[in-house]
Amino acid sequence: MKALEITGLKKVYKGGVEAVKGLDLSVEEGDFFALLGPNGAGKSTTIGVISSLVNKTQGKVEVFGYDIDTQLELAKSQLGLVPQEFNFNQFESVIQIVINQAGYYGIERNLAKERAEKYLRQLDLWDKRNEKSRHLSGGMKRRLMIARALVHHPKILILDEPTAGVDIELRRSMWTFLQDLNKEGVTIILTTHYLEEAEMLCRNIAIIDKGIIVENTSMKQLLKKIEKETFVLDLPANSEVSGLNGFEYRMIDDHTIEVDVAKKQSINSIFAQLSEQGIDVLSMRNKSNRLEELFVGLVNQNQQKPGAIS
Amino acid sequence: MNMRVNWVALKTLYVKECARYLRIWVQTLVPPVITMSLYFVIFGNLIGSRVGEMGGFSYMEFIVPGLIMMAVITNSYANVASSFYSTKFQRNVEELLVAPVPNYIIVLGYMGGGVSRGVMVGIMVTIISMFFVDIQIHNIAVIISMVLLTSMLFSLGGLINAIFANSFDDISIIPTFVLTPLTYLGGVFYSMSLLPEFWQNVSKINPIIYMVNAFRYGFLGVSDISLFNAFGIVSLFVVILFSIALTLINKGVGLRS
Ligand SMILES: Nc1ncnc2c1ncn2[C@@H]1O[C@H](COP(=O)(O)OP(=O)(O)OP(=O)(O)O)[C@@H](O)[C@H]1O
Ligand SMILES: [Mg+2]
Prior knowledge:
The complex is a heterodimer. Chain A contains ten helices and 14 strands. Chain A is of the alpha/beta class. Chains A and B meet through helix 2 and helix 3 of A and helix 1 and helix 5 of B.
């Protein structure tokens, strides 16, 4: 079963901005899916259309088979949304916000209270339940949005940059939380600017740029596409490398070298050659996230396409 | 099943709306009580005693129903206008928009909140008026039904205003430039029979005339206008404004880009 099926989606905002230009996307039930793209690519617009906060200009959206044009209320019931921007009533308390949201989904008050407690405890907000939402920290507000989105037990959860402005520790606990949720069968779609996050969590990925999908594949396939990786090696001071057979390399300074390694090459040979020259490798790291390079590559390609710039 | 879901959603929204104005009672309930007490003292007691009779009653007796109505009108309107606008402004209206709440439930929920505040203020003002005048009741059914219809009508008006509003200023434009003049010219302070015939006819396009007169009839048993017309016209306005509000929300005016 498809959790989400989008075909030919177009969105032109008033004033003429073409935010989404014919987007097709399909997400399987149970998937953990990443929607990646630079600022202004159209991620939030797409999510807005799915969750009926944005009117679409053209195209078709189905959530678990329910068309948002003809079966909107059923489509909405399947879906939980964690928006990019905070959108609480500043004057309402944490627990009130969650209970009211449950009420809008038709959940009776007693059950709503139970569920609110469950999710607020899980997200470590129970102690703050009587606090007004405006008195929460940024990270707490993010978690409150997650609790609010889950209270009606949606089959698909869409999170628009859930970890923006969230510290590393909290980010990790959010990841675990989302992974557990996914294991329980909830389909998850998230947008993020942290590629590491997408690589870590998601099985499938779509990259969107200027309102179109430029890549849509599994994370594994995507990583396979990476042709070469660059490693940075720290060497003792005043090392002189007299050549590395089969590798492109650059001396950055007298104790740092960058080596490009192609997909099937073994890095053992680098070490062997360096130790023959009497040079120890003190430490080694990836120059940058491999996915990041690929991402930049794909987005650049798209920008060079005729008509892509508009 | 679906009816149940909608009922719970409506209840949630209604309770939330009532909790809002009760929470900020100093801004919502106290001011009308003070204003209306001043009206009673100044117009009723001080000036009223010199005005003499109006429509066969002491001036105080004559204006009390109109003043209650005035409080109901302004408070129903203000409640929905400011509540819905701030919900829109803070974007927490999205909580409603993502949920499977039919739009007519949204309209009913906000209207319910406005009616509730209007009626509550109406009751408080009525109680205060009892310190100034012996209230007589001619027809309680007319009083209750007219108060409900009026507060529905102005709650819907407030909702429509908030849907179009783009700033907090916008929600005071209609009350200042439309509502206040219509209310003052709506027969609260004078009997229409005092006006030259031409102005009597002009007054008849002011819907507030109908509400005030029907309401006054409920207390005093006199009206410048036929009750049948009053109920017909006010009900018609309620239906029209309800449809307008619903259509606007269906289209997502001011809510969805
Ligand atoms: N309400 C709006 N009215 C007009 N234009 C808009 C509106 N919302 C977004 N846009 C425009 O649509 C384009 C896509 O915006 P969108 O918010 O979907 O991007 P995004 O991929 O979510 O970016 P980010 O990563 O920065 O959140 C941008 O050019 C933006 O300026
Ligand atoms: Mg965005």
